[in-house]
């Protein structure tokens, strides 16, 4: 006589109960769980922090038109948008950065040395100089 003839039906019933429990839990979480926060809309640059001194951040471009920051080698359309989100719209802002400002922007943009490597400040200074003449 076989002592375990009921193992397969019992295992199938346990599996079915587990799957039903998963579905019920998922549905309850969707209906009663925390609601997802609404998507953030673009906001002007926040009020300056203590680390922001020397960055020359703006809440909007001067005269309503930002400079084409893509003229700086290493800045593409996406990076330009990120700079705008962080209050950088003009070449003169980048040209005025010192070591502290570069370190703060490297942290804000999650870059490690990219600004120095690609010489953004000297490129911006050259563009400002050329525009002045």
Structure in words:
This protein is about 50% helix and about 0% strand. The protein has about 130 residues and is an all-alpha fold. The longest helix is centred in the N-terminal third of the chain and has 26 residues. About 5% of the residues have low confidence.
Largest sheet: none
Mean pLDDT: 84
SS element count, helices: 6
Q: What is the distance, rounded to the nearest whole angstrom, between the alpha carbons of the first and last residues?
A: 103 Å
Shape: elongated
| Contiguous runs where pLDDT drops below 50 for at least 5 residues | 42-48
What are the secondary-structure elements, in order, as H or E? HHHHHH
| DSSP E strands, number | 0
Q: Roughly how much helix do the residues carry, as a percent range?
A: 40-55%
Derived from helix and strand composition plus strand pairing, the structural class reads: mainly alpha
Task: Please state roughly what percent of the residues sit in beta strands, choosing from under 5%, 5-15%, 15-25%, 25-35%, 35-45% or over 45%.
Answer: under 5%
Features of the shown structure:
mainly alpha; elongated; 133 residues
Helix/strand layout:
Elements: H1 7-32, H2 77-85, H3 91-95, H4 99-108, H5 114-117, H6 120-132
Entry summary:
With 133 residues, this protein is mainly alpha-helical. Helix content is 50%, strand content 0%.
């Amino acid at each position: 006589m076989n002592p375990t003839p009921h193992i397969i039906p019992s295992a199938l019933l346990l599996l079915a109960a587990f799957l039903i429990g998963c579905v019920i839990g998922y549905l309850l979480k969707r209906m009663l769980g925390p609601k997802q926060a609404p998507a953030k809309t673009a906001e002007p640059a926040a009020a300056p922090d203590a680390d922001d001194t020397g960055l020359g951040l703006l809440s909007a471009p001067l005269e309503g038109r930002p400079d084409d920051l893509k003229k700086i080698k290493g800045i593409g359309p996406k990076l330009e948008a990120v700079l705008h989100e962080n209050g950088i719209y003009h070449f003169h802002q980048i040209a005025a950065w010192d070591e502290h400002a570069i370190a703060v922007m490297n942290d804000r943009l999650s870059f490690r040395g990219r600004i120095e490597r690609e010489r953004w400040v000297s490129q911006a200074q050259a563009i400002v100089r050329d525009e002045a003449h």
